[in-house]
Amino acid sequence: MDINDIEYSLTLGKVIGKKIQILYFCIIVSLLLPLVSIGICITIALDLMAIDEEMFWLLIVGNILMLVFLGISIYLLVHFKKINRQVKIWLEDCQEIMGYVEKLDSQGQNNGHYQVKITFEIDGKKYEKTSKKVNFLTDDLNYFAKYNLKCIKILYSKDYDQVLIPKQKVL
Fold first, then answer.
1. Which of 92, 99, 73 is nearest to 168 (CA)?
2. How far is CA 78 from CA 72, 99, 114, 123, 125, in A?
């Protein structure tokens, strides 16, 4: 199985595989406005162009927003590269089995977002694994809602004691 077939890691969260290239594109786009602004500043300094105060502040605000977007994109890139690296290691010894997903009672603590417990059996031994807490920036907050109280295909890495959820259709 390939990393692009994995949708979620129970301990690390969402896995985006090769879709990580989108983040490289976001970084390039977020660098464009500051580069254009530098060009505008050079033309102003050479007296080739003049701008009014409104345009000046628009450039400042635009650059600040792009730098914030750049920071978020770099954070997400590092985060997902780390996850991808880890998942590739776990995939080396995974075995495919069926697991039962059950919502854990959050008692209103997670604003409607919850953790789940996956129960499965290997060689007659029963295992229960709990998902990580949700990160609003990197995870789909209601990811497990579609799997609640259903049997799904999972990948279990016995050496690393990790559960991965491959992409699948659940009725």
1. 99
2. 10, 30, 25, 37, 37
Q: How far apart are CA 144 and CA 67, in angstroms?
A: 33
C-alpha 76/C-alpha 138 separation (Å) is 7
pLDDT the model gives residue 125 = 93
pTM above 0.85?
A: no
Report the sign of the C-alpha dihedral through residues 158, 162, 168, 170, in that order: positive
At residue 91, the pLDDT reads 93
